[in-house]
Amino acid sequence: MARTTAPAAKEPGRIKQMWQVFKMTQRYDSLTIWYLLAAFLVPLGVGLALAFLLSAGNVIGIILYVLVGLLGGVLVLLIVLGRRAERAAFSQIEGQPGAVGSVIKTSLRRSWVGSEMPVNVSPRTQDAVYRAVGKGGVVLIGEGPRSRTEPMLKKEKANVARIVPNVTVHVIHVGPDADSVPLYKIVPTLSRFKRSLNRAEIHAVSSRLSSLSRTPGNIGIPKGIDPTKVRAPRPR
What does the pLDDT look like over 85-101, one tens digit per residue? Predict the structure, then answer.
């Protein structure tokens, strides 16, 4: 008896993926449409202005400048859409345990090394401390109210200073406090720290801290929220 196989589900095309990303983003960020319009129209306007200022009477020159402006507008639009989509996705998990771990897992740049698992966590409140090592040194990220994570951060900062005493240590608070760093600003905040480690030193410091740090027990803290369940795929 011949076997019948179900046809494989066809993946949506790029245009459909972009539309899905836009709809998801627009649902959580009503200003997205205006950012996208500006992202597309500004480069296009610059291309048109250059076309008529620098290539007046030259049809080929005008066409080339318009095409450059059009392509530039599409490129900037895609970049802005990706940024706004990421911000909208992070807004859905803000305040949940493991949200910082999700950012570290999905958005940390190559010049930084971090883990979605916290290095210290409170079994009672689920407040946590995460660690990242990069060009700016060691960064400790507290997840939860500042009043509760401050003692945990001080303890971890002392541990880091004991293990790697000559490395710069920064502290970031992510929580409900007014002066806390939002999830979507974690990566930009890391990039603003002044360079103090090169690539070899980054991996050496990260390996030393990982080998000597205490591993949290099995206390119910999630590794990090699965980003595929809260955000649509990015346009390619």
Answer: 878 877 777 878 888 98
